[in-house]
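To the structural biology subgroup,

Please find below the input and predicted structure for Oxidoreductase, which we are adding to the shared reference set this quarter. The sequence is reproduced verbatim from the submission form. If anyone notices a discrepancy with their own records, reply to this email rather than editing the shared folder directly, so we keep one authoritative version.
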Amino acid sequence: MSGLDVRVARKTLDGAAVAVFELRAIDGSELPPFTAGAHVDVHLPGGAVRQYSLCNAPWERDRYLLGVQRAAPSRGGSVALHEAVHEGAVLQIGTPRNLFALAPASHTLLLGAGIGITPLLAMAEQLYADGASFALHYSVRHAATAAFRERLATAGYADRVHVHASGDPGGARIPLERVLARPDARARLCVCGPAGYIADVLAAAGAQGWRDEQVCVERFSAESPAVQAGDAAFDVVVASSGLRVRVAPGRAVHEALAEAGVEVPVSCEQGVCGTCVTRVLAGVPDHRDSYLDERERASGQCMALCCSRAKTPELVLDL
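Predicted structure (tokenized):
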């Protein structure tokens, strides 16, 4: 994975708990292009790698903007960025990747909750610049402390933004049945946010007649826990060498392989980014990621080694 060194040109607090990082090339040159919905891998102090969506307009080549919510509990990424990374710091990031891209549509609905607003900001900028039909629905607890509130209120597309502040006096949750009612066959729904919010949106969309191919989802965590009660040990076999490695309950496949001297590239460690997806030559995976689609899962021909396990005593991997 190619890397790029950037400098934190500016760090600000937006809303109650979101730090916005403006990243620029150290030599002032243009940054690699990106499309709306893209993210970058950020290499953090201590060695962890986390993914953050780019939330500025895609045509801005002089900077990247990241919005990072301080999570509680945190796996270390948000705390490191909030507490240890300041203006002037140099970070290594990956080049932009997009697993949450816009597609042609008669009308695009952007639904985001909390920090899930970040990729939708770039999408809204692009759709507005293209003169496309769209609406942005932003679900928050309190409007006054919501991140990017001022940016949305002053945007050229402000009349298409709907903020749903469920914790405010007189506020309410997004009326999903009404918002998602009567979908046009060429409409598209893009949703990002916490797992419970995504589940509610997808259930409502299905009830209102949205087809799977009309819906695009960005998740920040896996749908299924990587460790589950009753997990059994299994073996993985490295096809290129015949090396057999035991994967104990509570251990990830990539961890067991690393201990045996076989390094597998990993990034999110939650099954959402696809970095560690590997071909399966034999055996049946127990998928616990949120990256592969249903067709890919059903084929049994690949799996995410950071979180998925095995339904059979042995898996042969194309490594």
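Summary notes: The mean pLDDT is 90. Residues 107-218 form a domain with the Rossmann fold fold (CATH 3.40.50.80).

Regards,
Lab coordination
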